[in-house]
Amino acid sequence: MRHGKKFNKLSRTHSHRRQMLANMASSLIMHKRINTTLAKAKALRLYVEPLLTKSKEDTTHSRRVVFSYLQDKHAITELFRVVAPKIADRPGGYVRILKTGTRLGDNADMAMIELVDFNESMLKEKKAAKKATTRRAGGRKKAEETSPKAEATATVEEVVEETVVEETPVVEEVVEETVVEETPVVEEVVEETVVEETPVVEPPVETPVEETPKTEEKTEE
Fold first, then answer.
1. Is the CB of residue 54 less than 8 Å from the CB of residue 66?
2. DSSP 120
3. 98 forms bridges with which residues in the sheet?
4. For residue 109, what are the β-bridge partners?
5. What is the pLDDT of residue 163?
6. How far apart are CA 150 and CA 147, in angstroms?
7. pLDDT of residue 28
8. Of the given ranges (14-18, 62-66, 99-103, 190-194), which has the lowest mean pLDDT?
9. DSSP labels, 41-55
10. Residue 177: pLDDT over 90
11. Degrees (nearest 5) of the Cα angle 51, 55, 61?
12. Contact criterion met (CB below 8 Å) for 35 and 100
């Protein structure tokens, strides 16, 4: 009974199905894309993606685990040397399935399964699509005006203007104050020196007037 078994048996026994998926996985790793039926492609995706995740760690244990599934040393070398560096930054979804129509004999759904990072044509189309833009010039100007970069530049310009306006009057005031303070100090010093010198000259003039009476008294005696 197949209670709870949700995978597709593909009308094959366990050993046959496992060997078929191992051969298909080795072919996918070596050639990067293969054509098969849609049912086999979906089964192969579930089989090969865990092996690709395991190949991101290039250790002896990882190589032995992957080899136990594939049983192909050339596929192991290609997986760890070429494929693993390409998918190092991808967190899953290594495989893409593209439907290609139906088969002529039995009308079975056909598909192409490939590794995502090795389709150069689709990668170029994605790069070109990113460069193309449909925005108008007015919309760009508005976006630039409302962008955080424009706001940052406006604030920087305002700060620069404020600093310039504040610095210039400070210099002028300092120069004016120094000039006004120095001139009165010199004048006061000159006036004080002149006033102090004049009384110093008067005492020697009074001394002979006091001596004259003393001489007279001596003569009378």
1. yes
2. H
3. 112
4. 102
5. 45
6. 5
7. 97
8. 190-194
9. HHHHHHHHHHHHHHT
10. no
11. 95
12. yes
Three-class SS state of 150:
helix
CB neighbours of residue 22 within 10 Å: 20
Alpha-carbon span 216 to 202, nearest angstrom: 24
Residues 3-9: contacts with CB within 8 Å, 24+ apart?
Answer: 7/43, 7/46, 8/39, 8/42, 8/43
CA separation for the pair 32, 30 (Å, rounded): 6
Length of the chain: 221
Averaged over 60-80, what is the pLDDT?
Answer: 96
Separation of alpha carbons 30 and 70, rounded Å: 12
Backbone CA torsion sign across 64, 65, 69, 75? negative
Q: Is 136 helix (H, G, I), strand (E, B) or coil?
A: coil
How far apart (Å, rounded) are the C-alpha atoms in residues 83 and 29?
Answer: 8
Contact between residue 32 and residue 114 where contact means Cβ atoms under 8 Å apart: yes
Alpha carbon separation from 41 to 114, 203, 208, 213 (Å, rounded): 10, 131, 140, 148
Between residues 26 and 155, the one the model is more confident about: 26
b/e map of 156-177 (b: 16 or more CB within 10 Å)? eeeeeeeeeeeeeeeeeeeeee
Query: Which tokens hold the place of 49?
Result: 């993606």
Within 81-147, residue ranges assigned H as helices are: 84-86, 120-131, 137-146
pTM assigned to the model = 0.56
